[in-house]
Glycosyltransferase RgtA/B/C/D-like domain-containing protein (Hymenobacter aquaticus), 565 residues
Amino acid sequence: MFSKLPWNLLNRLAFGLAVLLRWAHELAMPQLTRDMQTQTESAVNLLRGQGVSLARVNWQDLAQPIFEPLNLWPPGYAWLMAGLLRVAGPNVLLATQMMHWAGLLGLFTAWWYLLKPLRPYLVPWAPAAFFLFWGLSNAPFHLLFGTDLLALACYSGGLALLFQLLTRPAAVRQASSGLAAALLMSSLGFGACLLRFAYYPLAFFLPLSLLLFAWRWRPALRRPALAALLLLAVLVAGLLVYQARVAGDAYYITQFYTQLSTEPARRATLGLYWHHLRQLDPVFYHSFFSNELDFSRLPNGTLGRAGAVWLVSGLVVALLAVGLGREQRAARRFGRLWPTRPVLFHLLLLGTAGLCAALLVALSLRYPAALVGWFAGGSWTYVADTRYFLPAFVSFSALLLVLVLARPPRLTPLARTLGLAVLGASLLLSLATRDRRTAQLLFQPPDFFIDKVPGRHDEVRRLDALLRAAGAGRPVLVGRNYYNKRVEIAARLAGHIILDADSLLAHQPLRTTRPVLMLFDLNPAVPPSPAVAEFLRRHQARPVLALPGLGAHLWQLRLRPRRTR
């Protein structure tokens, strides 16, 4: 039956199936990371009229919280999330899923059009194989967070427009100057900058590449290229002004995120830290294999992983070198300096990967490593963070896929077999790990990954209802005598302020100009300390919600102004 269907239809069906498969991954295993949590918290405050900000306690007057502008990220994600929360209501999970789904659909759609000019150079079923691989494989999409997918989708859309402009047939060039497409290209690049600071150089790569190409081969594209570059410069300048005037600073531009134990971030010592490059993420390996292959279970796990990394990386580099070399020689046989579409495609992707890596290397060399507890070894620098290489992962994955699917073949029979082996092994690992878990979890009620414990569903709904109703739209103080991640997530996403018991007790007597509502989360497994018990008794706290599944017990009290004699 399928043999009678045209390839165009089968490719479209495969594209739709790939999108659904990636959506299924997000639906089955949703995660709310700290990055997304913080930016969503700022979106809640934006809806409350406080701008893109985070609420902090004001010890001089608890009734007047301090709203600090969000400066760790550009405001794009917060703006989008605020709009979604208006539509989806207080269901943060639904809004988060919609953001992920929109990012995935945008990313796949951009790549559908990015591959379109290459169709004559690929086998007829190439799009089906390309997108089904990306739909099933966990690489290169592992370790994604909220802004990563959306930013990459915007940049890929701009890259697709750039490729379309550079490969337009003569009839299309005569009918249109390409100005609208060039301006849209820069607008999409700016969209990526609104979501992540790391896309600044990649965004300028788009109009600069168009200008370079136009200056050398297509004089008619010079005006559109200059207009696109000017538009992007104006937009980015406006964003920088926003960061300087509203957010206070632009992290990773005006200061560096260090968390150093010896000095504040603004005084980070500049230098040339060459030893940081020893932490370089194995980019070629992670373009096809995620960290789900647990080498720690092997007798010599560390050695086994190092061997796998070097073997796969060397093989991928060799395959790309062979394929791109043969592609370049094939282009030279035409006897012209004009780059063929495949060569141009490869140059754009290599430029993307190179710029991404160069930025991370430059930052890692220039600034001291951050001393943190959440990263392996306790020392973090840019080149060590896997997810920061996402544009490079996607580029290398696409390069190998296009070389394997090329027509006529651009790889020798042996090289093509080795390329298929790498892609097949990547696919088998994903089927055995993440795809298997997706199939197991897909038909369960979707929720945060930490809510999968049986019995938590109802408790989480009751917790969210209490936090949404508390304070009538104003930040509420949420005290605690222990750390409960799920309660903190719910409280921050409701726009409330988390306070530790030690801070509360250290600032006695508390100052407030009017009564302030406080919810206090007690650990039911451990009796409160005498000081905490006295604090709750003095303020006449009463229990309002017991959550044994979450291990939380919430009490309610009011902090009133002190009476002066």
Q: What stands out?
A: The beta strands are 53-56, 66-69, 370-371, 379-380, 477-480, 497-500, 516-522, 542-547, 552-559.
